[in-house]
Specification:
This protein has 756 residues and is an alpha+beta fold. It has 22 helices and 16 strands. Helix 4 (64-76) packs across helix 5 (78-86), helix 16 (359-391) runs antiparallel to helix 17 (395-411) and helix 17 (395-411) packs antiparallel against helix 19. It is elongated, with a radius of gyration of 36 Å.
Length: 756
């Protein structure tokens, strides 16, 4: 059974705790005796009942029932009155100042006939507490009340910089002041004094014990409710973080209360998962996945801002359940549709991998995702071999190959619909081949069988070409003769599956980033570009360049560097020609797989985009001449810089020279290695700090700490070079503000290979 003191605290707790305070509503001082309270009640209640305009000393919107309830609370139970005393102003001169934020925002109910004054009575007995206690307590009340008023009266404060700064300062003051007040012994002496003054048998020392245990959690409860009800993720995260930092309340207790407040979000997520599972059980994996993306992911985003999965097992479990659901959608689609499911299934597997929190689930998703990739690689290889046969005019050999594959699939119990469509396409359009989508009635694919088929038909096609006297082997840079016209493979899953370098692309519009194939023309004819290289992005010469996906910025920088280097080796100092490059997606970066998965395709073209003629061709038969590439190390955007894991060829003052530096792979002789571009202030932080440049010392310290973190474990005979942003970077904070970190040996010697 809850005692009245605890009941009063529970009733007070919430964003409206000060707005519902009986003393604030009635305009009475917290020290008013019962006689004063009754006199005020007898003056203003009848006036309000008659519809008179009464100045209550504040601008809160209150009804007659609110006034009656406030008087009943003060007069009806001393324990509830004591709670309201603690949450309002103690100094007599402060009583009646109902708008605690400062000047009054408006008279109680306006001015008009029948208006009566409702002044407050003075203290019935002088409190023996130190004056500083009253001052600090009232300051805490004012800050806390003003913060809650701002939160209640405004939505989306995180989007209003001026209001956000104001409420942030108020919350900081409220937490600090309440923490100081509750830690002072004289605060509890004041409570004992008020118990003695109220002189009621229902008040004793046990009330103090209850208040000591529950006051801090009562004060933090409004933050928890506000966080749960916030309309934006930024506000939810901001308020939840403020709650966890509240003084005298254990963070695990706040976490428990945040989970309770998040119950509607958990329930919404559970209902969505149930609907999606029902659709999946009925064979509608598209509908199930749509439920996840339309409803489950937004619900998870709300939970992540309020109760992040790194701190809350329940959120982590919910994320994992959604990951399992998406994995099952992708698996069901892949089993039923085969290659036609790739686009959606790949997306679902990717999202599932991002959400999974349980190691077993993560491994299952990876296994299934790899299985899909293997299946697609096998069908892609089939398609590539068929394309090459068709391009060479060997339609009958392409048909023989497809019939062989169909026979093997049929024997293994796999679906043959896709192969039948390829065969039909050969009959209808013998010159070209375009695959069509598999229908929804296809049976589950035997992926292991398909992998076996990949081996079988690869040898089969090799034999077919060998019988006709052609060579079909390829290398990482492409070998043999490129197709004179037709279609060239330029972005295969494996670098060795591409058409040889030297293919010529007729129009700029034919080069589509990431497309596996491009139409090509004879290089003797006018053409827009030439495929000059397939260059691996990963090597073993730098500990900072591995098969782990480095992020899109570094993929762009690496691709640009590798391709500009490749072009420069064949056309040094040629200012008429430039290079375009592909950027492999995250799926290509597999730390456990072969590094050749990560490569870029380089296409040379004229700077003016005019047609290249035979005279403009890049001579790939000439010996490549290793040369450096001129690149910056502190450009406006990180992706414009020399990539992490590349090296500066010769000694340079990196603090003052940040453009046109000679960059080489670290496998060649060099002076320094670029090891990182740590972001010091992201775009949001930079905007927030636009008028608050922290100064050189602060920025340098932050840059140095970030660079030192990236060079842990290196030998002691190395020098760390740090380039950090100056004040002018804060004038246009529409981009991340970063530092550049490089390392050289103290002796400034030139070396080859990885840092020690």
């Amino acid at each position: 059974m809850i005692d009245e003191t605890t009941a009063g605290l529970l009733e007070a707790a919430g964003p409206q705790m000060y707005r519902r305070n009986s003393f604030r509503i009635t305009g009475l001082p917290t020290s008013a005796d019962r006689r004063t309270v009754r006199q005020r009640q007898q003056r203003i209640t009848p006036a309000l009942e008659l519809g008179a305009d009464v100045d209550l000393g504040h601008s809160l919107p209150v009804r007659l029932d609110d006034i009656r309830g406030a008087f009943d609370r003060i007069l009806g139970d001393p324990r509830r009155r004591l709670v309201d005393e603690l949450f309002w102003l103690w100094d007599d001169e402060g009583a009646g100042a109902g708008d605690v934020g400062g000047a009054r925002t408006g008279a109680g109910a306006g001015a008009g006939a029948g208006r009566t004054s409702a002044g407050a009575s003075g203290s019935a007995r002088t409190c023996p507490c130190p004056k500083t206690l009253h001052h600090d307590h009232d300051a805490a009340v004012r800050a806390h009340s003003a913060a809650l008023d701002l939160e209640v009266e405004n939505t989306g404060l995180s989007g209003d910089r001026q209001r956000l700064d104001e409420v942030t300062q108020l919350w900081s003051n409220a937490a600090r002041l309440w923490g100081q007040v509750l830690r002072r012994a004289v605060f509890w002496d004041h409570v004992r004094h008020r118990i003695a003054v109220l002189d009621d048998r229902q008040l004793d020392e046990s009330v103090i014990d209850t208040l000591r245990d529950t006051l801090p959690t009562t004060l933090v409860k409004p933050l928890i409710e506000l966080a749960a009800a916030a309309s934006t993720p930024a506000d939810r995260a901001r308020l939840a973080l403020r709650a966890r930092d509240w003084p005298l309340v254990p963070s695990n207790l706040v976490d428990d209360q945040l989970e309770e407040a998040a119950a509607p979000h958990y329930e919404s997520l559970r209902a969505t998962a149930k609907r999606a599972s029902s659709q999946l059980d009925g064979g509608n994996w598209d509908g199930a996945a749509a439920e996840v993306y339309d409803h489950a992911l937004p619900a998870l985003a709300k939970l992540e801002a309020l109760v992040p999965y790194a701190r809350h097992r329940r959120t982590a479990s919910a994320r994992n359940d959604v990951a399992v659901l998406l994995n099952n959608c992708a698996t069901a689609a892949s089993d039923a549709l085969g290659p036609a499911a790739n686009l959606n299934a790949s997306k679902w597997f990717r999202t599932a991998a991002e959400l999974a929190t349980d190691p077993a689930t993560q491994q299952t998703i990876k296994t299934n995702r790899d299985g899909l990739s293997e299946m697609m690689a096998t069908f892609t290889q089939i398609k590539t071999q068929v394309d090459q046969l068709v391009a060479a005019g060997r339609i009958h050999l392409a048909r023989t190959l497809l019939l062989q594959v169909k026979s093997q699939l049929a024997q293994a119990g796999g679906p043959t619909g896709e192969i039948d469509r390829m065969l039909a396409d050969l009959r209808v359009r013998p010159a070209t081949y375009t695959p069509r989508r598999v229908g929804g009635g296809a049976r589950a694919l035997a992926w292991a069988v398909l992998l076996l088929l990949g081996i079988l038909f690869a040898g089969f096609v090799s034999g077919l070409f060998g019988d006709d006297g052609d060579s079909g082997s390829g290398s990482g840079s492409g070998s043999g003769a490129p197709p004179a016209s037709g279609v060239a493979v330029v972005s295969a899953a494996e670098i060795t599956d591409n058409s040889p370098v030297g293919s010529c692309i007729g129009q700029e519009s034919d080069w589509k980033l990431g497309e596996r194939e491009v139409p090509v023309v004879s290089c003797d004819d006018p053409h827009w570009g030439e495929v000059v290289a397939y260059v691996p992005l990963v090597d073993t010469e730098s500990r900072y360049l591995t098969a782990k996906y480095p992020g899109i910025e570094q993929v762009v920088a690496l691709s640009r560097f590798r391709c500009e280097r490749a072009l420069a080796e064949f056309r040094p100092d040629d200012t008429r020609v430039m290079v375009k490059y592909s950027t492999p997606g995250e799926d290509a970066w597999d730390p456990s797989g072969p590094t050749l998965d990560e490569y870029t395709t380089c296409v040379a073209h004229r700077i003016d985009n005019e047609y290249m003629t035979a005279a403009d061709r890049v001579s790939l038969d000439s010996p490549a001449v290793p040369t450096s590439v001129r690149m910056p190390t502190f450009a406006a955007n990180i992706e414009f810089n020399a990539p992490v894991g590349s090296c500066v060829e010769s000694k340079t003052d990196l603090a003052t020279t940040t453009a046109d530096l000679p960059i080489v792979p670290c496998g060649e002789a060099h002076w320094a290695e670029i090891v990182g571009y740590p972001v010091l202030y992201d775009e949001g932080d930079a905007l927030a700090e636009a008028d608050k440049w922290p100064g050189d010392k602060v920025v340098y310290a932050k840059a140095r700490a970030a660079c030192e973190d990236r060079t842990k474990g290196l030998s002691d005979d190395l020098r760390l070079h740090i380039t950090y942003p100056a004040k002018d970077w804060w004038t246009s904070p529409d981009r991340p503000i970063y530092a550049m970190c490089a390392v050289s040996y103290l002796a400034d010697n030139t070396f080859t290979g990885a840092l020690r």
